[in-house]
Amino acid sequence: MAKKKRTEKDAVSSTRGVASLEEAKAWMAARGITEIECAVPDLAGVGRGKIMPVSKFLSGPTMNLPLSVFFQTISGDYPPYDNLVDSVVVDSDLVMEPDFSTLAIVPWAQDPTAQIIHDAYHRDGRPVELAPRQVLKNVVDLYAKKGWKAVVAPEIEFYLVEPNVDADYPLKPPIGRSGRPEIGRQSYSIQAVNEFDALFEDMYDYSEAQGLEIDTLIHEDGAAQMEINLLHGDPIVLADQVFLFKRTIREAALAHKIYATFMAKPIADEPGSAMHIHQSIVDSETGKNIFSDAEGDPTPEFFSFIAGQQRYLPAVMSILAPYVNSYRRLTRDSMAPINVQWGYDNRTAGLRVPPSSPAARRVENRVPSSDANPYLVIAASLACGYLGLVEGLRPTEPLESDAKGLDFELPRGLLEAVAAMQHSDEISTVLGPSFVKTYTAVKQTEFDTFMRVISPWEREYLLLNV
């Protein structure tokens, strides 16, 4: 049957995404859009870009930003450019091209406003190898060349906290509709979620308006800790959705005078927040899951994918846990993993195989923290599985016992993780040598910034005792 031709009416009625500049004109005219936010995700997953009148965007939809946006640390500093890039080149303009499939409204804006995600290109047309969205595209292309297509489903945990305007004070759970802050453990409690019904109604409305496909909302183990699960799909589409969702829940929370935070360990005595990634690989032509054979049994490819994650996840740990704070989550006395053991429905292991039908057989990577850049964390996780597939690796035996009783197999801190990435030729090849070199330099600079801060622990135990 011939494919039905897309009409302008179809484009105008679309909640999210159009196919071209002409469709974008009609889409924005139908909604009375007056401004548009043009964003490109940086290494931290922060949206950098410009806000401009729609008339300016439609007259020339590309924008220019300097290469330095991909060198900026989370604190706004920059690493030394020696051996990375010429100091003149780093401030030269790149060409940012809009991806019209990401066009959506900004539902919390006061005036009719749209938003669109851009890709970064050098002026000669080459994709910018440092851009996180391009890093993910490159990994997806590696799968495509083998006749495969990756499918992912992220789960993102976050905390709701009282507004904190002084960083010297610890975070506290917010006041819900009952007038009391949450205490104790409220895992999976519907009543605890209901405490913030008005906030979550706004979140759902904002998400629906942007075409973000939320699967489920649950209360996690920590006080006012929540988890959002997104529907499975294409890695780039899902990374875009996580990128947009983080901003969406922050905006919904701010409207209710609450902060939403994706810090990996925001509160000392509460559990950390993760970004679990469910992963499966399908045949590009048939759409069948290559992790299952015709009889429904696991295939050699399934085990090789797991083995690749076991071998290479430690080398990409600085992506999965990108900040000093991230490693506070990975402790033996928590549900966060400390190694790369795997097991069937074993949540104490870094790699879990959830119960499923053969068609839905998948591997859940439980190592990443919620502060990670979604583009980079999905790219890194899939890169590890890819290496396992092409190298024909074999995993350890599945673990049935508690993995917490075993040794640490993951880096314990940021500098150790950076060194692991720098020493992995395989990861450098898959993610790109220039990306790895720049990313690790940024992480080292962030660590240097952290070391300039004196912590309360140091004042508590060292001030009068040493």
UniProtKB/TrEMBL annotation:
Its EC number is 6.3.1.2. Pfam families: Gln-synt_C (PF00120). The keyword Ligase applies. Keywords: ATP-binding, Ligase, Magnesium, Nucleotide-binding. One of its GO terms (biological process) is glutamine biosynthetic process. SMART domains: Gln-synt_C (SM01230). Residues 132-466 form the GS catalytic domain. It comes from the Bacteria. Its cofactor is Mg(2+). GO terms for molecular function: ATP binding; glutamine synthetase activity. Gene3D superfamilies: Glutamine synthetase, N-terminal domain (3.10.20.70), Glutamine synthetase/guanido kinase, catalytic domain (3.30.590.10). The keyword Magnesium applies. Belongs to the glutamine synthetase family. This is Glutamine synthetase. It comes from Ancylobacter tetraedralis.
